[in-house]
Write a structure and sequence with these properties.
3 domains; hpI Integrase, Chain A; DNA polymerase, domain 1; mainly alpha; single chain; two-stranded antiparallel sheet
Length: 347
């Protein structure tokens, strides 16, 4: 990454033919503006800013310049990262279309374990413990350019201390690895001396025994998505997909941190907190239970109101009935008086 940043910086400022002492803040701001116009995010531009400032600080300390002009440039604003990911149905579809692809193994292992690209390509057979069902991350494969020439960098030094981790060997992963072992042995017999024996320790090799390199894996992954009309994501987003699937199935954030090999919990929380719907749902259920008393009170009030209404209704019925009986009685009395009056008059 450092070499790529340096290459872009050098290319931009070389065309300006500036001397170091003539560099001004607006020159650097112009460079940042060109990066934004290319569609780069604030996070990426910040990487350029950090590198430029470090270089100019070195020049300042060694009296090559009077001031570090990068300190006068507004630091690019970091944007909150929202990880893109596949859900389990999309992962299932992806697995279906890569069965005959040379990159099947690294793609599937990355989706299952959330490996970084350098980690999955750096897997060695001695990191797979078939007896105790364990898989260890302890080596990486990087690819870079030095003076325009591609270089492969193999190292046991991972991104951070927690990147070195040992995880349970999933049944599906074990079958994939055993099948790969058989495939390698068959290819060695079939190709004989033509088989590349330099990478016998590595898991992710092609049919000729050549190590699958990072750029090759990424380009192959892009072709797979395009060819099969799958939603476009980055290869690294398979790592995010793994985390999101774990979260959606109730795996605690702390365990996901350990699974992915993040240096600290905040990294995991910052990236995946917006996906942690299950935790939010549990919180909502808790608060619903806590405030259930208000619903109970409302229900009791509703019951009381219903009862009062029913009593009032019955009172009205009784009153109406009493009125009808009174009128009937009054009518009867009136009739009796009429009969008595007639008798008195001898009618």
């Amino acid at each position: 990454m450092y070499n790529k940043l340096a290459e872009n910086i050098s290319k931009y400022f070389k065309n300006m033919r500036l001397k170091l002492k003539d560099l001004k803040p607006y020159h650097i701001e112009g460079f940042y503006k060109s990066l934004y116009e290319k569609g780069l995010s604030g996070n990426t531009v910040l990487h350029f800013h950090i590198l430029i400032r470090e270089c100019l600080q070195y020049a300042f300390i060694n009296d090559l310049v009077l001031v570090n002009v990068a300190d006068k440039v507004k630091r690019p604003k970091v944007e909150k990262f929202r990880a893109s990911f596949y859900d389990i149905k999309e992962i299932e579809k992806l697995f279906e279309v890569i069965q005959d692809n040379e990159c099947k193994l690294p793609i599937m292992l990355t989706a299952m374990y959330g490996f970084r690209r350098s980690e999955v390509l750096g897997l060695k057979w001695n990191a797979i413990d078939f007896k105790n069902k364990l898989i260890s991350v302890q080596h990486k494969v990087l690819e870079t350019k030095i003076d325009g020439k591609r270089e492969i960098y193999l190292s046991d030094k991972l991104k951070n201390q927690t990147s070195n981790r040992t995880l349970p060997l999933l049944q599906q992963a074990e079958k994939l690895l055993l099948d790969k072992k058989d495939e390698i042995e068959k290819n060695k017999i079939l190709l004989g001396k033509s088989y590349d024996n330099r990478y016998l320790d590595y898991v992710c090799v092609d049919n000729l025994g050549r190590l699958i390199l990072p750029n090759r894996l990424t380009k192959n992954f892009i072709k797979i998505l395009r060819k099969n009309n799958l939603r476009k994501i980055r290869f690294h987003d398979l790592r995010h997909s793994c985390a999101s699937i774990m979260l959606s199935n109730g795996v605690p954030m702390k365990q996901i941190q350990e699974w992915l090999g993040h240096a600290d919990f905040s990294t995991t929380a910052n990236i995946y907190s917006h996906l942690d719907y299950s935790t939010k749902l549990n919180s909502a259920n808790t608060m619903t239970s806590v405030f259930a008393f208000s619903q109970t009170q409302e229900k009791e009030m509703d019951k009381t109101q219903d009862l009062e209404q029913e009593i009032e209704r019955l009172k009205n019925i009784i009153a109406k009935k009493e009125d009808e009986e009174y009128l009937e009685w009054k009518k009867q009395k009136k009739s009796e008086k009429k009969i008595l009056r007639c008798k008195k008059n001898g009618l």
